[in-house]
Amino acid sequence: MPSQPPVMLSDLELDALTELVNLGVGNSAVGLREMVKEEVLLSVPNVVIVTREQAIANLGRDPTKRLVAVHQNFEGDIRGRALLIFPEAQSMELVRAVVGSDVSLEDLIELEQEALAETGNVLLNGCLSTIANSFGRTLRISLPEVVHGDGSEFFNLTPWPQIDDSVLFIYINFAVRRGNIQGYLAMLLDLPSLVTLKELLASYIVRMGGTATTSPSDAG
Amino acid sequence: MTRKVLIVDDSKLARMAVIKALDSLHPDWTRFEAGDAATALALVQRESPDIALLDFNMPGMDGLALAAEVRELNPEILVAVISANHQVEVVDRARAAGAKFLPKPLTAEALRHFLVGVAGTQPGAR
């Protein structure tokens, strides 16, 4: 099993991808804010490309710390699965933020799946559509599904794929006043999609005015 | 009149995009780049820029906190905070910090608007 992902991005490509994710979650924050009726704080995303095994290891294998994932499949020039993952222990906190605090526990439990799906939908769609629009491409995005489990379950959901797939793993914190909710965004891509992503990033960089080097303009 | 513009973003690509927009309007203006708040503050002291374009979401000090510190060093400086995150609280805090909020990705048109609005400058004017 390869310990390195088969495709690596250059520093500037990774910078561009991080910036696109940043734009995407920034846009999504506006939608989330409408849902929770208070400011949503977001950390700067940290984007890395890892193998599926590493991604599972990153999420930890502690069976007492179960996770929730909202996932959506996307198809187009790039195909894969996007996931929003956070600790199960925090999911009720998030649900409460979305549905309001004056809801009975019974209703809260009933609304849990829906609230999680909607939160994931806003964040994942925000990211995916920002990336697709920036590339001038279209992605078809499936409806969100909510699953409880751990990393190895999330990254082996069917229908899915082959060996040699890679995971874009994005660490991000988002918080509302009620509490800090640590979340991860992950995108599972197959090898052809990762190759395409690298090409799309390269042409995006050129369109944004980037070249291999910039002239140092801060020389006093 | 030539102006000095400070561009701050932790993303090199985002800085390139801002410079591209600025070049399309004022290719003759002097610009300084910083990838973090500490470098930005040092440049404000050393170069006395007239205009600062600050990314909001940066590691360490964010663009709003930086806007306040920049203006403390130089109350005359014209500041814009740039972000895709246009939550009302963020826009309000930008305003409270004496900065204009500009949506990301920054377009040349939005930048032109900001520069005309605050600096009374016209593209091509020297």
Q: In words, what does this structure look like?
A:
The complex is a heterodimer of chains A (220) and B (126). In chain A, 45% of the residues lie in helices and 25% in strands. Chain A is an alpha+beta fold. Chain A has one domain (11-207): Chemotaxis protein chec (3-Layer(aba) Sandwich). In chain A, a hairpin with a 3-residue loop joins strand 3 and strand 4. Chain B has 126 residues and is α/β, with parallel strands linked by helices. Chain B has a single domain (4-119), classed as Response regulator (Rossmann fold), CATH 3.40.50.2300. In chain B, 45% of the residues lie in helices and 21% in strands. The longest helix of chain B has 14 residues, at 12-25. The mean pLDDT of chain B is 91. At the A-B interface, helix 1 of A face helix 1, strand 2, helix 2 and helix 4 of B.
Mean pLDDT across residues of chain A: 83
CATH topology of chain A: Chemotaxis protein chec
Number of domains of chain A: 1
- Total number of strands of chain B: 5
CATH class of chain B: Alpha Beta
User: Would you list the SSEs of chain B in sequence order as H and E?
Assistant: EHEHEHEHEH
Instruction: Specify the CATH architecture of chain B.
Output: 3-Layer(aba) Sandwich
Q: pLDDT below 50 for ≥5 consecutive residues: which ranges of chain B?
A: none
Annotated CATH architecture of chain A: 3-Layer(aba) Sandwich
Q: What features would you highlight for this structure?
A:
heterodimer; A: 220 residues; alpha+beta; Chemotaxis protein chec; 8-stranded antiparallel beta sheet; 45% helix; globular; B: 126 residues; alpha/beta; Rossmann fold; 5-stranded parallel beta sheet; 21% strand
